[in-house]
Design goal:
By secondary structure, the protein is an alpha+beta fold. Helices cover 26% and strands 25% of the residues.
Length: 382
């Protein structure tokens, strides 16, 4: 009898070891540990299935994960950062190459600006060419990088929280490198899966921090921003560059996005060789606040808006103007950066730059239901 019991116990032990081995080598442990990681990262607001759909099903590892402040605080604004990447040592995921997702969640406006004098207030949306409005009810933008073998996308979503609370800015950057052939972001389904991480995170963050924002629709597609080959003559521009007048060989090309609900809009102008000559940007909400900080406080230059000025020229030679917008604590900021030496600009150059900034700012402000911008002036900040 004892022999039978011993044999049965040994058999059960062997089965347990076999099951454990199958669980381990079959990827069960990797999926379990990845699930725990995704559930706890970023204060629990990451869409686990969405991150898996982009980075793969196998083992992932955590990067930076930090949370501080609150949405309705009086001293420090909410700042949450987390990073998830493929564990390449474990040959994770079904896709080739490395991959990572970085998420930043920021309360708007920034309350502790003095403590952050030497850093940007909010994550940037890197783009050589204009980012595209996210659409589908979301106040956001989608931007892609353009490096061989590296697919990089940044999605930013701004949530207008219920009255009496700060707003929320959710920024998600996804990088996949080491792939062969076409960029994964050329595939509409992959591109939408990348952008959806941001909108799903924003949805979870709205609940987590009692933002109670009106949310957009579940994304069914993600826009593909304009590429280098998709320039138009200024006279044919219908989006963010509409109304801009060409200027001989110096301004013969325009790269634009559609006009839509977005907290950041851009128009890039170039010469007949496709070299950039002017870059225009419309900053709303946190992007206006962040631009002012970067152009003045971080560099030690005076902030002309704080002194009551409504338009002028910044110390770096950038032309600017402002407009007040309903429900916004921060005036919208419109800038034009000439790609030319400040000392070599003629009177005709300045007149053209001011006229271009004027039409760009007026059309953007009207689309956002803001007041008419101040007329741009060639006055340098005191």
């Amino acid at each position: 009898m004892r022999r039978h019991v011993a044999r049965a116990g040994a058999g059960l032990g062997a089965l347990a070891l076999l099951a454990g081995g199958l669980f381990w080598f079959g990827g069960g442990y990797d999926r379990w540990s990845t699930g725990r990681l995704l559930t706890s990262a970023c204060d629990g607001v990451l869409p686990a299935d969405g991150v898996r759909s982009v980075l793969g099903e196998r083992r992932l590892k955590a990067g930076d994960d930090d949370s501080a402040g609150s949405l309705d605080g009086t001293v420090a604004s909410l700042r949450v950062v987390c990073g998830i990447s493929r564990d390449t040592a474990k040959k994770a995921g079904e896709h080739a190459g490395d991959g990572s997702v970085t998420v930043s969640i920021n309360g708007v406006p920034t309350l502790d600006r003095e403590d952050r004098r030497y850093e940007s207030l909010y994550p940037t949306v890197p783009s050589e060419l204009p980012p595209a409005p996210l659409g589908q009810g979301w106040n956001g933008v989608f931007s892609v990088g353009d490096s061989p073998g590296v697919a990089e996308a940044t999605t930013a979503v701004l949530l207008d929280c219920a009255p009496g609370r700060g707003d929320l800015l959710v920024t998600v950057s996804v990088v996949v490198d080491g792939y062969l052939g076409d960029s994964p972001l050329d595939n509409p389904e992959r591109r939408t899966a990348v952008a959806r991480i941001a909108t799903d995170t924003a949805t979870n963050a709205s609940r987590r921090w009692n933002c109670d924002a009106a949310l957009g629709e579940r994304l069914t597609t993600a826009p593909l921003p304009v590429n280098q080959d998709e320039r138009v003559a200024p006279a044919d521009a219908k989006g963010t560059c509409s109304g801009v007048i060409a200027r001989g060989k110096a301004v013969a090309r325009a790269w634009e996005s559609e006009r839509g609900t977005a907290p950041l809009e851009e128009c890039v102008l170039g010469n007949t060789q496709d070299h950039t000559t002017y870059r225009l940007a419309a900053h709303y909400g946190p992007y206006a606040e962040g631009a002012r900080h970067d152009y003045t406080e971080r560099s030690g230059d005076p902030d002309p808006i704080a002194s009551g000025q409504r338009s002028g020229v910044l110390a770096d030679g950038r032309y600017w103007t402002t407009a007040t917008c309903p429900g916004s604590r921060e005036p919208a900021l419109f800038t034009l950066a000439p790609y030319s030496d400040k000392a070599k600009r003629s009177e005709a150059d300045r007149a053209y730059a001011l006229s271009v900034l004027k039409v760009f700012a007026e059309r953007s402000a009207a689309a956002h239901h803001c007041a008419a911008p101040a007329a741009p002036t060639p006055t340098t900040a005191p």
